[in-house]
Each structure stands twice: as structure tokens, then as C-alpha cells.
Amino acid sequence: MDQKDTEMNEKGVTSSTSGVVVQVREKKGPLRAAIPYMPFPVAVICLFLNTFVPGLGTFVSAFTVLCGARTDLPDRHMCCVFWLNIAAASIQIVTAVVMVGWIMSIFWGMDMVILASYRDQSIPQQV
Fold this sequence. Notes:
2 strands, about 55% helix, two-stranded antiparallel ribbon, single chain, transmembrane
């Protein structure tokens, strides 16, 4: 091997410095992939709504899909993604009685904020 490709560390183990990039992608189900990439303030409002009224923020986020918000389901029609979000909101409302929907609703809102921060990072800033 070439001196440039390998080097010895202090324990005497040879390590490669050529570097390999490994990309990891999260596999999402259809409901999770239907969460829209919204502007950050809208995502925070949806999180706030989901925290106090389970499913309401998810219901509001469904309408952002009709307004052109991008999702991780590019091959599905906008109306299909809208109805997936309505289904998620309905599940949260129905199961809120046993606290599962309320917890799911809060996590859903946190996912909205996380996706909004990714959206804001990927858009180039205009000067």
C-alpha cells in the first residue's frame, strides 16, 4: 500500500485516509412522508396547535399541501397527500381520548418544525 493511502495510529493499527462517504436515508411510511415542508413560522404554529388541540395542527398542515408545500411523496398527487394528512389528523383526534393521539400529535408537530428547519437550510439566501 502507498504511504499516502494509509497511516499508523498510536496503537499500531493501520487506518485508511482515503475516506468513504456513506449516505443513510430514513425509510418513511406514507403518513410520515406526507408531512409537508412548511415555512418555519407556520410549522411552529402547527406544533402549538397540535400541543393544545390534538390533530388541529396536522389538519391545518394538510391545507399547506394544497398551497404547494413539498412533501417526501413526489410521485403522489397533491390531493392524495392532502387526504393522507387528513387521515393522520383524524387518527390523532380519535386516539387522543387514550392519550396516544395527543402524544402522536406533539411528535407530529415536532417533525413539522424539524422539516421546516431543513427547508430553510436548503433554500439559498438572496442578498
